[in-house]
Design a protein that fits this description.
three-stranded antiparallel beta sheet, 2 helices, alpha+beta, about 35% helix, rod-shaped
């Protein structure tokens, strides 16, 4: 008895100007463009991960700037009274707008810098970067 002839499967229609290609074994029929659809669905996730990575770098940068400003403000205030806040503000990038608070209590000078961190990721709220530095008071007018 002869084997029954299998029914022909419908072929995917090629785009204009594209020849019909024979189906490779192990592939599904009519799956043209499936990778493009999966890629389009994955792009928002990929962009979100990239934004989070950039945000993490920005947070680290702002914290380093706050630390630099606090050390500079404390050092300048320890050498000469009244110069710490301006020196701390000048030590960071101008677009960051730091708030510099300097206090002296006899033997030491304490500088605290606060910088607001701007968010790149929508819906993410971040605490401001705060840094504190303490330097011994070197002002010769104060004396021991």
């Amino acid at each position: 008895m002869p084997r029954p002839r299998p029914r022909p499967r419908p072929r995917c229609r090629p785009g204009p100007g594209l020849p019909l290609r024979p189906r490779r074994p192990g592939t599904r029929r009519c799956d043209r463009g499936q990778v493009a659809l999966e890629y389009i669905g994955f792009i928002p996730i990929l962009l979100f991960v990239a934004l989070c990575a950039i945000q993490l770098g920005w947070v680290a940068y702002v914290h380093e700037q706050a630390d630099t400003a606090a050390r500079t403000a404390a050092r300048a205030e320890a050498r000469e009274r009244g110069t710490g806040a301006a020196a701390g503000a000048a030590a960071v990038r101008s677009g960051l707008a730091p708030r510099v608070d300097v206090a002296g209590d006899g033997d030491a000078v304490t500088a605290t810098v606060t910088i607001t961190i701007k968010s790149l990721v929508p819906g993410l709220s971040l605490d401001p970067a705060r840094a504190t530095a303490v330097m011994p008071d070197d002002d010769p007018e104060v004396g021991p």
